[in-house]
Design a protein that fits this description.
This protein has about 210 residues and is mostly helical. It has helices at about 1-10, 20-35, 40-50, 55-60, 60-85, 90-100, 100-115, 120-145, 155-175, 180-195. The protein is elongated, with a radius of gyration of 21 Å. The protein starts with a helix and ends in a 14-residue tail after the last helix.
Length: about 210
């Protein structure tokens, strides 16, 4: 009862609240384990070991809750991507991140949720644009430092790598494997050639030889 009285005086969604964090943790776990439809105030309270009514003291609506989960996951992803893209092998880092099955699973849940909630769709688009800009800017810096004049713009390289990696993860999750090994081998060979040669992959990233 004391906790309920306290939360009434608090700003809804207070960032430093341990209870709010516990609810977000529980919501994320439920989405990963059972999908977004399982995230109700009753299930959330049970998962977090809290009273269900506390959900609406910290989040006015379920949309506010889903937005908070999405923003927290997105910020983590941006931080991880920024660190990865600072490495000496940003192309490989981009490829490896695109094949993270846990990230793909949550993306699918939020995409399904976005079909019914415009606010989620808008937030996903905003975060996706931020991530792509971060990745393409990092690749552009990497190419410039190595004196590479890309035939394919860094943003397109980013989109291609992310798309292929995501498709492999999604198809693998439902049991598809046709051409997967060959695709992974091709990408690996290209990455290895790029890293060992200290130059761009001829005809793919590098500009054509003027001679």
């Amino acid at each position: 009862m004391d906790e309920v009285k306290t939360t009434r005086r608090q700003k809804v969604g207070l960032e430093n609240s341990a209870t709010r964090t516990a609810l977000l943790d529980a919501a994320e776990l439920l989405m990963r384990e059972e999908g977004y439809a399982a995230v109700t105030s009753r299930r959330l309270g049970a998962k977090a070991g809290l009273k269900p009514q506390l959900v609406h003291y910290y989040f006015r609506t379920m949309d506010d809750l889903f937005l908070a989960v999405l923003r927290r996951i997105s910020e983590r992803g941006l931080q991880l991507a920024a660190k990865a893209m600072e490495s000496d092998q940003p192309l490989r880092a981009l490829w490896e991140q695109s094949r993270d099955p846990s990230g793909a699973a949550m993306n699918l849940e939020f995409m399904a949720l976005a079909n019914h909630r415009k606010v989620i769709r808008a937030e996903m688009a905003r975060n996706g644009e931020r991530l792509r800009r971060l990745q393409q800017d990092a690749l552009a810096r990497h190419f410039a430092l190595r004196g590479i004049e890309p035939r394919i713009p860094p943003g397109v390289v980013t989109l291609l790598a992310s798309s292929v990696g995501l498709v492999l993860v999604l198809e693998g999750a439902i049991g598809m494997s046709n051409a997967h090994a060959e695709t992974e081998a091709l990408v690996e060979a290209c990455l290895r050639r790029f890293e060992e040669a200290g130059d761009a992959i001829p005809g793919f990233i590098a500009a054509p030889d003027a001679s």
